[in-house]
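Escalated from tier 1: 2-acetamido-2-deoxy-beta-D-glucopyranose holo job.
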Amino acid sequence: MASGSRSAFSFYFLSILSIFATLSSTLSTEQRHACQSPTPNPLTGCPPNTLLVDPSSASNSTTNSTNVFTTIQSAILSLPHDNSTSTILILPGLYPEQLNITRPGPLTLLSQTASPLSLSSNAVEILFRSATNTSSFDNAFTSVLTVAPTLNSSLTGSGPTGNPVPADTPLGNSNFRAYNLNFTNGFADYSAGPSLALSVSYAQTSFYGCAFKSYQDTVYIGKWGSAYMRACEVSGQTDFLYGFGTLWIEDSSLLLRSCGGGITAWKGTNTTYANKFGAYIHASAVRAANSSIAEQIVGKCALGRPWNAQHRSIFAENYLDASIIPSGYIDWSATDPRVSNWTFMAEYGDFGPGWNLTGRVEGNVTRVLNESQWEAYSSPAKVFQYFMSGEMGNVGWIDPDA
Ligand SMILES: *[C@@H]1O[C@H](CO)[C@@H](O)[C@H](O)[C@H]1NC(C)=O
Ligand SMILES: *[C@@H]1O[C@H](CO)[C@@H](O)[C@H](O)[C@H]1NC(C)=O
Ligand SMILES: *[C@@H]1O[C@H](CO)[C@@H](O)[C@H](O)[C@H]1NC(C)=O
Ligand SMILES: *[C@@H]1O[C@H](CO)[C@@H](O)[C@H](O)[C@H]1NC(C)=O
Ligand SMILES: *[C@@H]1O[C@H](CO)[C@@H](O)[C@H](O)[C@H]1NC(C)=O
Ligand SMILES: *[C@@H]1O[C@H](CO)[C@@H](O)[C@H](O)[C@H]1NC(C)=O
Ligand SMILES: *[C@@H]1O[C@H](CO)[C@@H](O)[C@H](O)[C@H]1NC(C)=O
Ligand SMILES: *[C@@H]1O[C@H](CO)[C@@H](O)[C@H](O)[C@H]1NC(C)=O
Ligand SMILES: *[C@@H]1O[C@H](CO)[C@@H](O)[C@H](O)[C@H]1NC(C)=O
Ligand SMILES: *[C@@H]1O[C@H](CO)[C@@H](O)[C@H](O)[C@H]1NC(C)=O
Ligand SMILES: *[C@@H]1O[C@H](CO)[C@@H](O)[C@H](O)[C@H]1NC(C)=O
Ligand SMILES: *[C@@H]1O[C@H](CO)[C@@H](O)[C@H](O)[C@H]1NC(C)=O
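Tier 2 regenerated the structure:
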């Protein structure tokens, strides 16, 4: 065999292997719904070797202890630190714990539910209470769920470039998925310092029918963090989508529990390749969390503010309720505006009472994009980049059907 055809053969062989690897890492929607569906044996319909989290199993001597756990984190810690694929099914309940996923292999967390398309039917809440309301520890330690390979990679740090993550840090989880889970940081019912529900760095993660609840810095997408959310709900008051990485939210709700800072607070990064790190909120609703808070925040909440001058975020084709300030985005602060020609705080096709073109133009801080400007960002494949190379189109870890 000529070496040319041998390498072509290896190429095809490796491609086939990688297709199998990809297929084996994902559940079809039917398989997932079958696993989530309440059945007498909860694992009926689940993939082989699915782990079960059942708090009642602690007092049940007939439970198969090799695959049943009373806490979610104990199930996560039982998994090997390798590239194998795992699924964890979680029974209804309130789980007072902190989750930390460092393993690289694909991992899917599912809650048991008869209504996977209904967020309000979610019956699993993971609740932790922590905030950095003194400066004595990093925001990373407050999060309900952390997906990152190392502690260093998850640290927010300070200054315009944040924590310097060691250069040899590998990609952590390559395909983390969560369905129908609520993550709540219940430290206080007002902004009392960074209080994370989600922290993702050096990892590729996606969320379907999930809720993230806190007041300040609810969702942190750190360096090389990629997160995709669909049919989710994120609640907050201050800078509640923040970070360095790439976040795409669609068909979801952003709930304003009051106003403070902005919704998005991003830090841009200089790289040798073009990057599109930023927060993209598409085809979603931005509104007051309830009618009593709605009356108090009319025209007061900002879409975002620049954590550094290279902030990039876009709100596109969203419904905005009357809570949004006429200028849309705002400066970081009066004394430290952090706005320059690098700052990209933009909107395209937003509508509803919170959309005010006169206010946006007069405010002179929001970029109102035309269709061709939005086109450069208009789908996940145009913004999610491959780890370290920066090549676009890294979306194989997103569930296309959920
Ligand atoms: C217990 O669970 C393990 C892992 O899923 C499985 O291999 C084993 O057959 C189960 N044992 C019984 C008695 O069900
Ligand atoms: C104990 O576990 C077994 C097997 O999973 C289950 O059939 C049974 O209903 C459980 N009993 C209680 C009291 O939860
Ligand atoms: C997982 O796969 C990646 C990419 O193929 C590889 O670099 C890494 O060494 C593997 N990790 C483990 C723990 O096997
Ligand atoms: C999960 O969050 C949704 C949306 O806020 C809510 O309707 C549902 O009651 C919550 N469930 C639990 C168990 O917290
Ligand atoms: C931290 O938060 C707690 C609870 O809200 C509060 O009692 C305390 O005063 C706060 N401390 C600081 C330094 O803000
Ligand atoms: C997550 O787990 C890793 C490995 O045990 C640990 O080094 C790290 O400190 C944990 N991260 C957080 C934020 O607690
Ligand atoms: C973590 O990063 C800091 C720099 O932020 C460095 O000083 C420290 O040595 C790193 N620790 C580890 C265990 O890599
Ligand atoms: C409305 O939302 C605010 C902010 O979360 C909360 O403090 C208040 O209790 C809520 N009111 C009602 C009636 O739910
Ligand atoms: C990136 O480069 C620009 C232009 O040199 C500079 O103004 C900016 O401060 C740099 N940003 C970061 C985060 O290093
Ligand atoms: C911002 O302006 C500086 C100085 O005019 C220029 O060098 C730089 O390329 C501009 N940056 C962007 C993102 O346009
Ligand atoms: C729109 O913005 C302009 C300029 O800030 C302001 O005068 C006007 O009241 C706003 N309209 C509404 C409906 O908020
Ligand atoms: C708008 O802001 C830019 C800086 O971002 C400034 O150069 C320009 O003069 C401002 N325009 C108006 C009309 O205030």
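The longest strand covers residues 253-260.
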